[in-house]
Specification:
The protein is α+β, with helices and mostly antiparallel strands. Helix content is 24%, strand content 40%. The protein has a single domain, classed as GTP Cyclohydrolase I, domain 2. It contains three helices and five strands. Strands 3-1-2-4-5 form a five-stranded mixed beta sheet.
Length: 123
């Protein structure tokens, strides 16, 4: 970005109850999944008027993630992360996004997850 400013907008620890996984117990019903999103957002200038219209409103990504997973079963966390990244990158101001999903209840001693980074010019 030649001019302007970049802010990091974060949605951390969004708890969802959703279908995710390939094992019989995961296919049988929803489970808890924790999603975190970190977006690098470019603006022409810093917000001066202290108004939400000047910046990316993170309410959209929270609502869009909830709509994305409602009534749908994802087999892979990787697929879920890619779908969330695509939602974020639909806003042209988002230059890069990191998405993390965690299944905290699979093992009694560890959570399992996936994390990806996507952006303009990043595979």
């Amino acid at each position: 970005m030649a001019e302007g400013v970049r802010f990091t907008t974060i949605l951390d620890g969004l708890e969802l109850v959703m279908g995710l996984g390939i094992h019989a117990e995961e296919l049988a019903g929803p489970q808890r999944v924790i999603v975190s999103v970190r977006m690098e957002v470019d603006y022409p200038t810093s917000p001066h008027d202290d108004r939400i219209e000047e910046v990316l409103d993170y309410d959209f990504i929270r609502a869009d993630i909830r709509a994305l997973v409602a009534g749908r079963h994802f087999h892979l966390q990787e697929t879920l992360c890619e779908a969330v990244a695509a939602l974020c990158l639909a806003d042209r101001r988002v230059a890069q996004v990191m998405v993390r999903s965690m299944k905290p209840d699979i093992y009694p001693d560890a959570a399992v997850g996936c994390e990806i980074v996507r952006g303009r010019g990043i595979a």
